Amino acid sequence: MSHDDFGLGLHDINNAGVYAIDTSDISALSAAMRDADLKVIRIDLDGVSDKRTLLARLAAQLDFPAGFGGNWDALADNLRDLQWLPANGYALFLADVDALRAGAGAGKEFDTLLDILDEASRDWVGRDVPFWVFLSQSA
After folding, report:
1. Residue 63 to residue 133: CA distance in whole angstroms
2. pLDDT digits over 91-131, tens only?
3. pTM
4. Contact criterion met (CB below 8 Å) for 30 and 24
5. CA-to-CA distance for 93 and 22, rounded, in angstroms?
6. Cα torsion at 9, 12, 14, 17 (round to 10°)?
7. pLDDT, greater one: 54 or 47
8. Angle at which helices 72-79 and 106-126 pack, to 10 degrees?
9. For 28-50, how does the pLDDT look when each residue is reduced to its tens digit (9 = 90+)?
């Protein structure tokens, strides 16, 4: 499978960003990202419907340092750092975002998450480090 099979231009760092994908594409896209020598991290958000649980799940799965503030600013800061996860680049797969998108007040929180992920991606790309984020809904 070529890196262009997904129509994302995976070979071009400037295409890195936040994308919605089908759950069925996770395995092949993960393999393409590993082949590109990126650190692939899958974060299962099944059942996550609120900000507190989301931030806790992200902190645990990304192994945030002790003292993570548990708020949007702390998430943004940690996503732009990741010194404890050294890599040539990153590919985050946030799986099963359904509950988060549908939860009470989650529409706004989901939009905030997307903004933070997009800002983190642009920050990394500005340092010539690819930072891809893929969001999938459950099948």
Report:
1. 17
2. 999 998 888 888 756 578 888 999 999 999 999 999 999 99
3. 0.88
4. no
5. 11
6. 50
7. 54
8. 30
9. 899 999 988 999 999 998 888 88
d(CA 39, CA 41): 6
43 forms bridges with which residues in the sheet? 94
Query: Do 117 and 75 meet the contact criterion of CB atoms below 8 Å apart?
Result: no
Query: How sure is the predictor about 22, in pLDDT bands with cuts at 50, 70 and 90?
Result: confident
Give exposure, 95-127, as e/b (b: 16+ Cβ within 10 Å).
Answer: bbbbbbbebeebeebbebbeebbeebbeebbee
Query: How many Å apart are CA 58 and CA 2, to the nearest integer?
Result: 30
Residues 52 and 36: their CA atoms lie apart, in Å, by 33
Amino acid, res. 49: S
The DSSP string of 52-85 is HHHHHHHHHHTTPPTT---SHHHHHHHHTT-TTS
